[in-house]
Amino acid sequence: MNRHSPLPNRGNGGQTGDVHPLIEVPALDRLLRRQTPVVLLDVRWHLAGPPGVESYRRGHLPGAVFVDLDRDVAGPPGPGGRHPLPEPVVFEAAMRRAGVTADSLVVAYDDADAMSAARVWWSLRYFGHDRVRVLDGGFRAWTEAGLPVSTTEPDVKPGGFIAHPGRLPVLDAEGAAELATAGVLLDARAAARYRGEEEPVDPVAGHIPGARNAPTSGNVGVDGRFLPPELLRERFAQLGATDALDVGAYCGSGVTAAHEILALNLAGIPAALYVGSWSDWVTNPTNPVATGDN
Fold first, then answer.
1. Is 136 in the same domain as 31?
2. Contact between 136 and 112 (Cβ < 8 Å)
3. Of the residues 232, 251, 261, 262, which is catalytic?
4. Are residues 113 and 71 in the same domain?
5. Full domain range(s) for residue 180
6. Which of 108, 118, 209, 292 could be joined to 259 by an S-S link, Cβ 3.0–4.6 Å?
7. What region holds the Rhodanese domain (predicted)?
């Protein structure tokens, strides 16, 4: 992998072309009532369990297909981290099973805050499919609106999705280290993990030297919906991240950092994802580790 692949053009107001990365519950409901073809992906996932498929089976948006983040959206844990990029053929097969074709409008959702749905949004775009949106507020917003849920698994016609990897910028460890000094590298984990006060998952606590802490929880409100773009721009500007600089993001294993990429996108700031993130960084004992607030 290159130190980092080229970042998108700055100042482009986002990286999604004509497709806004979010969709609100009323807008999705209207599309479904009109029988507009939409591929719904249920990507509920919980780091410490229970398995997301259990939530899916208890109830999901009518017509939604469950996508397993660990199996379908990430490769096996190993030297590249806990959630490395999947092989293109694996991701392609998963999206085909879900019914995704070249022209499908895909809507991904999770419980509420898009922490796992954003990884699917990012992955589809990385593999060349731009017509993908995240349901803002997720399953909770849908049910709070009094809309129907289903326990029936749909009979899906396989799609013809073809994976074309490399359509979004990514970082490896060397590129992340460089960006932490030459640009802005955001650490999307909770502050205690960033400072090295606790580390519940990985064997080493701390952060990449020069990275700035921007917990993903600050991208959304208490309802799980993303903050307005102007507030996100203000938040990232306070951290030094603007569309005038090269920006990247990492987390523990590249899942919640995709949420940071989505939030940056909403703010009009192109950014690269360090997919391996901290779980990849600490596999190399020569990589330096910082603790505290700096």
1. yes
2. no
3. 251
4. yes
5. 170-282
6. 118
7. 34-151, 184-290
Q: Within a 10 A sphere around the Cβ of 35, how many other Cβ atoms?
A: 7
Q: How far apart are CA 284 and CA 79, in angstroms?
A: 9
- Between strands 184-187 and 132-135, the pairing is unpaired
Q: Could you give the CA distance from residue 8 to residue 146 in angstroms, rounded to a whole number?
A: 40
User: Which residues are bridge partners to 150 per DSSP?
Assistant: 60
CATH code, domain with 59: 3.40.250.10
Q: Please state, in angstroms and rounded to a whole number, the distance separating the CA atoms of residues 275 and 119.
A: 10
In a domain, 160, yes or no: no
DSSP H or E stretch at residue 27 = helix 25-33
Are residue 39 and residue 140 in the same domain, yes or no?
Answer: yes
Co-location of 111 and 192 in the same domain: no
| Same domain flag for 253 and 191 | yes
Cα–Cα distance measured from residue 136 to residue 202, given in angstroms and rounded to the nearest whole number: 30
Contact by Cβ (8 Å): 92, 103: no
Q: How many domains does the chain have?
A: 2
Q: Which residue matches tokens 């509420």?
A: 112
SS3 260: helix
pLDDT in tens, 53-104: 999 999 999 999 999 999 999 999 998 999 999 999 999 999 999 999 999 9
pLDDT tens digits, one per residue of 116-170? 999 999 999 999 999 999 999 999 999 999 999 999 999 999 999 999 999 999 9
Kindly state whether residue 36 falls inside one of the protein's structural domains: yes
Active site residue 214: no
pLDDT per residue as tens digits for the range 212-265 = 999 999 999 999 999 999 999 999 999 999 999 999 999 999 999 999 999 999
* Gyration radius (Cα) of the chain, Å: 18
